[in-house]
Amino acid sequence: MTSEHKKNRNLYHFFLTALYLIFALVYIYFLITGSNFYLTEINKRPHHSDYRSLRPAGSIGHGFGVIGSFLMIAMLSYSLRKRTRIFKNAGHLTHWLGFHIFCGIAGPLLVILHSSFKVQGLIAVSFWSMIAVATSGILGRYIYLQIPRAISGKELDLEELQSTNISLARQLKTEYKLNDNDIEKIEEWYGIGTGEQKSLGLTLLFMITKDILRPVRLFKLRKRVSRKYNLPRSTIKKLLKIFERKVLLERRISAWQAIHQMFHYWHVIHKPFAFIMYIIMIIHILVAVYVGYIWIF
Fold it and tell me: Residue 47 falls within a domain, yes or no?
């Protein structure tokens, strides 16, 4: 990885983190200040002091809908970057994906405030389609991360994965003087496994559970390695970092086919919900504009 690429990546992560943080603070602010209105019964809301501003057609409530819809439309920029030649060199694909995911989280959350936590009729179909798109999007991101890629974002094939795995094993042997028995023993302590022999659903559940419990397993593994091998703490930290990469790589090699099947089925589920969401959202916007609900501060 070049220093320029590393600098750009760090800048991108800083920008995205700041974006999430600012959005979270603003969202929490409106959630807290409007909590009294949102908790008021529907039939009593017209008498609430915040009704004219926080109702779906209000100055603030309508704004939530406009900005939320804009962010959901901005999600399509990732597809344009991925599928059109004109945007082929317009930034790193993973950066576009990160922005796509931010829009997919922030947009629906703003639409929830726009609805003032009350949806019904045709809008309810769009709303729950939107929730399904956001939820499946988070799951899709997780599955996407299980597919190893080069720095450029290009997916690595099975042969490249196996070559990388051999290189990591060689590094463990040459730099840390571990033999095959040592590596096998540490793998046993780590609790390596993929669950690939199970159904796709159970394989996915197995992988998620392993990732959730990873900090606990690493903590226990660090203690066992410290007792077994007389190495400085800094060396053990570096060793386990390389070893964890190897274990994750082996898991992904073993579940390579299952992961690709999951990604295929995810597209089959994700796209129809997105299509329904956008169609009804467009109808809703056109009707709102037609009857005169134009957002003006």
Answer: no
Are 197 and 224 part of one and the same domain? yes
Are 133 and 226 within one domain? no
Q: Is residue 165 part of a domain?
A: yes
- Per-residue buried b or exposed e for 154-181, using 16+ beta carbons within 10 Å of the residue's own CB: eebeeeebeebbeebbebbeeebebeee
Q: What does the pLDDT look like over 33-51, one tens digit per residue? A: 999 999 988 889 999 999 8
Angle among Cα 21, 26, 27 to the nearest 5 degrees reads 95
Q: What is the pTM of this model?
A: 0.66
For residues 102 and 133, state if they share a domain.
yes
Asked whether residue 105 falls in the same domain as residue 232, the answer is no
The reply to whether 2 falls in a domain is no
- Residue 32: exposed, middle, or buried by beta-carbon count in 10 A (0-12, 13-18, 19+)? exposed
Q: Which residue has the tokens 């900005």?
A: 67
- Residues 192, 162 share a domain: yes
| 133 vs 91, higher pLDDT | 133
If you count DSSP H runs as helices and E runs as strands, how many of each does the chain have, helices first?
13, 0
Stated length of the chain: 297
More confident position, 164 or 46:
46
Q: Summarize pLDDT for 181-215 with one digit per residue, the tens.
A: 877 777 777 765 544 456 777 777 777 777 787 77
Residue 151, domain member (yes or no)? no
Confidence at 157, pLDDT banded by 50, 70, 90? low
CA angle 30, 31, 35 (to 5 degrees): 115
